[in-house]
Amino acid sequence: MSNHEQHDNEHQPVKRKGMSRRQFLSYTLGGAGAFMAAGMTLPMIRFAVDPILKKKETGSLIKVVEESKITNEPQEFKFNIHQIDGWYVSDPELAAWITKDEKGEIFALSPVCKHLGCTIGWNTNNNNQYVCPCHDAHYTKEGKNLTVAPKPLDEYEVQLKDGWVYLGPIKANTRVK
Questions:
Q1: Alpha helix (H) ranges present in the chain?
Q2: Nearest Cα residue to 79 out of 158, 167, 162
Q3: Which pTM was predicted?
């Protein structure tokens, strides 16, 4: 090694293995910021996702009317259900048209028109049909769609117990084809 090469090596800065102060501060502040951001967003994500992850309960039956009050002419009965949507608890009032068929079996139809969701009425035109006042959709006593509406009225699950009519969740109409 020559004297000149030795002299050049003495004036070169010493290379350190490690990070500089600036890198250390960048990593520390970045990590602390990420930790704080995660601490704020994770509860929000959990708040939004938690209701989706909860197991859905099966629909419970609601006691609506005495079995002896049901006739062959459809009658509208109102009832309240206890409902929990995420963290919102309510007791909305629902309605059902309950009647007996030719065999004497009790069934209940939803009053919501399948065309645009208006509330139907029974025999308002003296034609023994359900009629929607919004767009003149017509349904038979069993809920079969006659005009305007694309599908028949939905029906409630019905159970008879101890002389009472109990209604469950709404399902697609099984009485008409």
A1: 3-11, 21-53
A2: 167
A3: 0.65
